[in-house]
Design brief:
The chain is an alpha/beta fold. Helices cover 29% and strands 23% of the residues. The chain is built from 6 helices and 9 strands; from the N terminus they run βββαββαβαββααβα. The strands form 2 sheets. The chain has a 7-stranded mixed β-sheet, sandwiched between helices. Helix 2 runs antiparallel to helix 4.
Length: 201
């Protein structure tokens, strides 16, 4: 039986630099968070969206599992822990930010296939001299254990989990052959980062 694969979209941040509900901003008429969900849906058996405590969204497709962080402002590692707990019956997860509107399913599939086939618990994309913390693929149980330990030690950065787990990095030449424009790594912090954005007069 093939491994069960879930997607996790981290969507609980405050978007302070954007100035409004960043994830509701649209690219080609589709909200950012919906674009991330759609990309993960193309490679996963189900998608989990992690929201801030009490948050409600009406721009998510039917069938998505919504879960909430226990506390506000705890950072992306806590959001990852929430998502992993919701995905605990899955063998593998692929994780991305809700503000990543141009994720390429071929690259996400490569991440999942690599963590499935290699003797590692995490896979990231190479970027220059290092690797990027999102998107990543993880073995669910080892990742959940590692994130739990890191949080109890006061750690809050996504990169910390990659430093703790057995991690493989897919070199740039390999993944950019599937995504020459490196669209998968793009995220949105400010309105000017949106594709096609033009400031008003």
């Amino acid at each position: 039986m093939p491994p069960l694969r879930s997607g996790i979209v981290l969507a609980g941040g405050g978007a302070t630099r954007f100035g409004s509900d960043k994830l509701a901003a649209t690219v080609d008429g589709v909200p950012l968070v919906r674009r991330a969900v759609d990309a993960l849906s193309a490679v996963a058996d189900g998608v989990i969206v992690v929201l801030a405590p009490g948050a409600v969204r009406d721009d998510l497709p039917a069938g998505v599992t919504v879960t909430h962080d226990l506390q506000r402002g705890e950072g992306p590692l806590a959001g990852l822990h929430t998502g992993l707990m919701a995905a605990i019956r899955s063998d593998l997860v692929v994780v991305a930010g809700g503000d990543m509107p141009q994720l390429q399913p071929s690259v996400l599939r490569l991440l999942l296939d690599t963590v499935d086939e290699a003797s590692v618990d995490a896979v990231a994309l190479g970027d220059g001299e290092g690797s990027r913390p999102l998107p990543i693929a993880l073995r669910t149980w080892p990742a959940a254990d590692a994130v739990h330990t890191l949080l109890h030690a006061g750690r809050r950065r996504l990169r910390d989990v990659l430093g703790t787990l057995r991690t493989a990095v897919i070199d740039e030449a390999t993944w950019t052959a599937l995504d020459p424009d490196r669209l998968t790594l793009r995220d949105i912090d400010e309105p000017g980062d949106l594709p096609g954005y033009a400031p008003g007069p």
